[in-house]
């Protein structure tokens, strides 16, 4: 573990206090020690639960919205464009909410709304066109919270000497899930129908919600020296 050194930095008329870490040799096996590996599993879990439904919607968007009653051809493509727009817009507010609401409430609230949106699509048959678009838009918008945190958390929770390796390992673990799910999605739709597919997506988001409730740390207002020395522990609601 790196030891922070307190350094005063003067830029113009302003003076800043910086925690500077001493250079350390990176050892990949350190990722699997008792402190780092639980955080690897936690971030990989929330990352995977966010990207599996998202990749499926991106890859098979027109087909999915068509099966949910949004027509075919141009209408389905237009609906997919609207949903993609909300995926983009959903990345902006969390940049502000990270430091106002905090990391933990943002993650929990986002997964709750994502779960609700997919559950509505799975439980209510023959929804109107605009309700289908609205439910997908809610999912797409709130996916921005976990989308931002899956990059922020690794950079806060791991020390500098192992941070890049941690991000790489976590991303690789999440991509295993997306590869399998993207391959399996058409088969699942054919065998079980679009409603059950949406409920499966809701179940994946629900798992992300439960993991977040149990283990998501709050790092708002803390320095990197502090967050990189945290240990994972079961959290309490409230």
From TrEMBL:
Entries under Gene3D superfamilies matching the protein: MFS general substrate transporter like domains (1.20.1250.20)
Question: Is this entry keyworded Cell membrane?
Answer: yes
The UniProt transmembrane annotation reads 37-58, 78-98, 105-124, 130-153, 165-185, 197-216
Q: Which Pfam families match?
A: Sugar_tr
Q: Which UniProt keywords apply?
A: Cell membrane, Membrane, Transmembrane, Transmembrane helix
The subcellular localization recorded is:
Membrane
**Any one GO MF annotation of this record:** carbohydrate:proton symporter activity
Provide the Major facilitator superfamily (MFS) profile domain boundaries: 1-220
Instruction: Identify one Gene Ontology CC term for this UniProt entry.
Output: membrane
First-listed, main subcellular location of the protein, grouped into a coarse class: membrane
- State if Nucleus is listed as a keyword: no
**Where is the secretion signal located?**
none
Similarity remark: Belongs to the major facilitator superfamily. Sugar transporter (TC 2.A.1.1) family.
- For this entry, the protein name equals MFS transporter
Q: What is the lineage of its organism?
A: Bacteria, Pseudomonadati, Pseudomonadota, Gammaproteobacteria, Enterobacterales
